[in-house]
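User: Structure tokens for both sequences below?

Assistant:
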Amino acid sequence: MYSLHKIPVSLIVFSLGLALSGNNPHSLPAGAADAGRGSVCVMKPGFWSSFRNPALLASFHDFSAGINYENRFNISELGSRTAAMIIPAGKPSLGIIYSHFGFSHFNRQTFGIACGTILWENISSGVQIDYFFEKVSEKYDNIHSVTFEGGLTIRPAENINIGVHVFNPLPNSLRKRTLPSFIRAGAGIMLNENLFAGAEAEMCTGSTLILRTGFEYGLTDDLFVRGGFSSRNSSFSFGLGYSFDRISLDMSFAGHERLGITTSLSLIFLLRDQ
């Protein structure tokens, strides 16, 4: 029999998800590498950032797969489990992603298919189709939603990247259920061959402007240290990454001014290089 005390728990889970994701609970986890940089990822090529801006898929030419686990505030009911794959297909690259957030009485599953390609020498674009399935206990109707997102990257100089990402640009008048919309834009620079620094801004429906800054420094060819800051809840983050022969391991820690620490752990497998 369903217990009524599960309803408040479900509402708490939903509220905390909103608090963490800048009022957009449909935003996918960034992966531990990007989370360690304060989620500055809209312009930096990488496995997980390719699913935060599909235009970045165009710069990923290796057949790869990855898994990510995000433990929000050390509460198992708020955990997100994500799996993804990138498949080069000539000039464009394709991406497939699946994510599960929540627990038995409240969960959201996300499926996405993305494609990114080079338009001109220094300009890339991409699009991703998203399907969301939400379940809130046995006594409530399941919720299905479909939308899309798109992105653009520009490289005005060899060491500078600019990225723009738009989620759910469709008017909500065309759908039965309202979905949040947001736009992110940022720029990053390789200050030298080992040090990356970037900043971005995000505006989401019903939220104030969110600013993020982050860096990544290669201590060696295989070992990386990362840090970042987000104005959302004044959150600082820190992360480490290590690359083996065909496996990359990343972990990160992001603070919240009231709720504590969110940890992320990612594994990326290089299945075949070009």
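Moving on to the next sequence.
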Amino acid sequence: MAVQTVAMPVPVARRPRARSLRSLLRNRGALIGMVVLLANVIAAVFATSIAPMDPLDQDIAQRLLPPAWLDGGSTEHLLGTDQLGRDILSRIIHGSRISLLIGFLSVAISLPLGVAIGLVSGYAGGRFDDAMMRLADVQLAFPFILLAITIAGVLGPSPRNVIVILAIGGWVVYARITRGQVLALREKEFIEAARSLGAPHMGIMLRHILPNVLTPVIVVGTFAVAQMILLESSLSFLGLGVQPPTPSWGGMLNDGRGYITLAWWLTTFPGAAIMVTVLGLNFLGDWLRDLLDPRLQNL
């Protein structure tokens, strides 16, 4: 009697987009981070329409008003006013534009630069590798905030110079991560096969090595945006970043530090905006790490 063999249906591979969406919906931290990021992006893009008042308008008669839910507060100024009578909520909304712009642009400059240096350095080796890694070691030997203060003192405080400073300080991390990944990949069998088939070095780096090193770099870049926002706030707090009257979260902290005991809302709400934004970006970074690392995926 012949035994019939029944072909078992082969499960269809999960589509990456569907898997990513399901992973996002299951991760509460990632959802919170996505909501925070979207809220900041909307506030930055539509700040002029969303803000209840002009962030630069001064009204000394309304100075140091408390939030609306406290005695003496006004519904026209939900989060109160500062020492010059400017609306705190409007300045926080407009400050998100500066923070996100500087955070994302500095990473957008430093990440490709660091990846390119690390890719060539790890693949080619030799003197170029030695020179780049020694330069990275020298830069890492200095505390970044001191390096940023020095450069800002030379270039002068402005949003453009802050982006340049943060980009200069951020390339080292991406270069070292990329170099380490390239060193582990360049002797693999598929790379040797590409070389034996006559593939050019540039083609090997771009087509075979680069796609395999981007995952950790993307995850680090997500965390770096949060770090850049913190560093920008630190420079603005020290008076070396965005200059008044342009609203920035770090600048608002600097303006309110002399009124902490008299008007706590001047520093509390900008500080909360920084904390929530950085926390949300870190949640997104954790989710991306879990999503892109195959060792952490549920099979």
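User: Anything stand out in the second?

Assistant: The two ends are 39 Å apart (CA to CA).
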